[in-house]
Amino acid sequence: xxxxxxxxxxxxxxxxxxxxxxxxxxxxxxxxxxxxxxxxxxxxxxxxxxxxxxxxxxxxxxxxxxxxxxxxxxxxxxxxxxxxxxxxxxxxxxxxxxxxxxxxxxxxxxxxxxxxxxxxxxxxxxxxxxxxxxxxxxxxxxxxxxxxxxxxxxxxxxxxxxxxxxxxxxxxxxxxxxxxxxxxxxxxxxxxxxxxxxxxxxxxxxxxxxxxxxxxxxxxxxxxxxxxxxxxxxxxxxxxxxxxxxxxxxxxxxxxxxxxxxxxxxxxxxxxxxxxxxxxxxxxxxxxxxxxxxxxxxxxxxxxxxxxxxxxxxxxxxxxxxxxxxxxxxxxxxxxxxxxxxxxxxxxxxxxxxxxxxxxxxxxxxxxxxxxxxxxxxxxxxxxxxxxxxxxxxxxxxxxxxxxxxxxxxxxxxxxxxxxxxxxxxxxxxxxxxxxxxxxxxxxxxxxxxxxxxxxxxxxxxxxxxxxxxxxxxxxxxxxxxxxxxxxxxxxxxxxxxxxxxxxx
Length: 505
Ligand SMILES: NC(=O)C1=CN([C@@H]2O[C@H](COP(=O)(O)OP(=O)(O)OC[C@H]3O[C@@H](n4cnc5c(N)ncnc54)[C@H](O)[C@@H]3O)[C@@H](O)[C@H]2O)[C@H](O)CC1
Ligand SMILES: [K+]
Fold this sequence. Notes:
The chain has 505 residues and is α/β, with parallel strands linked by helices.
């Protein structure tokens, strides 16, 4: 799914109105219908809805929503500003149409502070959407601060009021803090970054039928990895295949005291479908690895830590977890990097060695995949003021070096050599635990061995890893789930994928 900025979203709106064709009023009605359906499906019927409406079309959505909810027998209050003079036509019509339902209580926005809210209230924010053009202040800020303190579920229409769709806000800016955001048609960039996404709660993207031709032809280099992307990437296994056709994965990982990282990476590679898997590690890991993962072959590269790396053609290499940064390991790794020509997956200590030897960035084979967390990214490419600047820098460096950079975050960003960025939305806070990254390296390397193109392996691998995390969370909890559980859940994720793909074709 493409990510558009607010001016592109306005264009999508206008294009749809002109070419479907459909009136602005009808489009607003569709948006309100989608929200009403979601609320009626998700929120108990005895709820009292308090809908706060601004003077723009976001407010118009709120007014239409109030009418639809009331029409369906739900208890509804609306709050509007003093004057409707500035309002768009569609918003004004929806204000007038409230008269169809005299049972809707209409209040002034400033009266909210005096109101006795029912115990089973839900607050709906339709104050500002993509038309916000400056930070919120004055009476709107007072109202939002008041609403944020009430002990009720808060739901935003399209965008939490106070957030811009496509840029950072000032620290301490006033924003409606939503538990859920019902947003139209597209993910907005601000939902995907920690500084702004924290205000959105759970994001639900509602289809309102904006014109396909516009969506297809309007350029964007930012995307969200959605189900359509994944179904296109996933290659179901042919019944006539054999292990020789499913690639050879080499995981180079582990040193004394950090052999768990190697275990996790190699097990993930095997569970992700690698035909043949080799774990290259120092002698101290031999017994541990052969016992914990008998499916993989062991090859020696040192005693307590790696001192020489083996190069084999026709293998996909994933290197770094638990490797350590002993000077001998660093020297051997840099030589290996210089001699290799095949794309490889580089993580953890291998990234730290590169960061300590900046000239080695140029030696990374083209199309390789780097999987830094924010701290590793900073060591490699320097610090940035915020996550928006960080993804811009990652996008630039990926294109400059001809590599894929997987910037690990709540919504991990996959920056491809062609300058595009994919945001991943699978995964959860239970994955913020030592060992998750080792599993990711194993998954991506395994996909690379199975002849997924490097960019595909990165996008698909990050999605799989997150989805396995979501399955693991359902069985356990964000606190208790383990990176090992991600490996165990890979099977269920593939099962689900192949069943769904079967339905589609
Ligand atoms: N694009 C779509 O797919 C659809 C969008 N819909 C809804 O429309 C809004 C966008 O509406 P718009 O009228 O452009 O903007 P807003 O409602 O967000 O508000 C603009 C309004 O507010 C004033 N304003 C802006 N910033 C401030 C501020 N800080 N303080 C006070 N006033 C401010 C501005 O001058 C305008 O007067 C979109 O989000 C959807 O909810 C359609 O209904 C369906 C299709
Ligand atoms: K809103």
